[in-house]
Amino acid sequence: MTEQYQHKARKRFGQNFLHDAGVIDRILRSISAKAGERLLEIGPGQGALTQGLLNSGGQLDVVELDKDLVPILNQQFAGRDNFRLHQGDALKFDFTSLGAAPRSLRVVGNLPYNISTPLIFHLLANAELIRDMHFMLQKEVVERLAAGPGGGDWGRLSIMVQYHCRVEHLFNVGPGAFNPPPKVDSAIVRLVPHTTLPHPAKDHRLLERIVREAFNQRRKTLRNTLKALLSSDEIAAAGVDGSLRPEQLDLAAFVRLADKLAEQPQ
Ligand code: SAM
């Protein structure tokens, strides 16, 4: 890299660059991209994962917010005909503009922690385009994504992501793999959108509403937290015990509550 392209990591863009070759290789092997596949990398940074993704022979689009990284990325990769760079905010990016076939897009990113949750929801709004997603996230967030009912990690994020996807917590990554090292542990997660939703809700927005209300006060009983939305009788008619707390319900039970709400005149 020439002097003029030296880049200082920026905190406001959540820049913690991967430099551990073993970790980079393990991530790339987990993704196992093949020639001709449609790949999308969010936040390529200085190209730690980009290089290996391009070497797979896949068609790679990258979305990077930091303008100063554009020359660094172009210098390394602009000559490769399977590389396309989009400078901008991934949270505002229109994924349909990529022209990818349904269920073809393989999304990858060592994500800035401050945008990880909204970005996952932005991507899930186009879940039909996506084959799978591999993300480096804060370990605590991965634990919440992969949680099952009954524990403190089970909440809005677990439920709304598991509504759309199968979630696999692949492996953990310590702070030393990054430059600068973050203050928290990280982990790699794989999200695979369901081809057929296992528990489809009549109205997805009502599921969001029920889950948000229920977990607003997670220590309280459902009868209490949901009283503005559903009566005790309606909760019982949905096959749910109103004396339980929200973390004790599985996804199917939340969908039954949302479907009960959908029966009310809106
Ligand atoms: N992939 C690189 C790596 O593993 O070394 C960089 C990872 S760094 C944690 C996150 C990257 O996302 C940075 O390059 C940052 O500039 C970029 N970024 C931050 N916010 C973004 C956004 N809203 N849209 C697109 N990229 C963003």
Briefly characterize the structure.
By secondary structure, the chain is α/β, with parallel strands linked by helices. It is about 30% helix and about 20% strand. It has a 7-stranded mixed beta sheet with strand order 4-3-2-5-6-9-7, with helices on both faces. It has a two-stranded antiparallel sheet with strand order 1-8.
Instruction: From the 3D structure, determine the CATH topology of the largest domain.
Output: Rossmann fold
CATH class of the largest domain reads: Alpha Beta
Q: Measured on Cα atoms, how large is the radius of gyration?
A: 21 Å
Counted up, domains total 2
InterPro entries: KsgA/Erm, rRNA_Ade_diMease-like_C, rRNA_Ade_Mease_Trfase_CS, rRNA_Ade_methylase_Trfase_N, rRNA_adenine_dimethylase, SAM-dependent_MTases_sf
Keywords: Cytoplasm, Methyltransferase, RNA-binding, rRNA processing, S-adenosyl-L-methionine, Transferase
Organism: Pseudomonas putida (Arthrobacter siderocapsulatus)
Protein name: Ribosomal RNA small subunit methyltransferase A
What's the arrangement of secondary structure elements?
Elements: E1 17-18, H1 21-31, E2 38-42, H2 50-55, E3 59-64, H3 70-77, E4 83-87, E5 105-110, H4 116-124, E6 130-138, H5 139-146, H6 156-164, E7 165-173, E8 178-179, E9 186-193, H7 204-216, H8 222-225, H9 232-237, H10 251-262
Parallel strand pairs: 2-3, 2-5, 3-4, 5-6
Antiparallel strand pairs: 1-8, 6-9, 7-9
Helix pairs in contact: 7-10
S-adenosylmethionine is lined by residues 13-18, 42-45, 48-49, 63-66, 69, 89-91, 110, 112, 115.
Keywords: Cytoplasm, Methyltransferase, RNA-binding, rRNA processing, S-adenosyl-L-methionine, Transferase
Domain Ribosomal RNA adenine methylase transferase N-terminal: 23-195
Organism: Pseudomonas putida
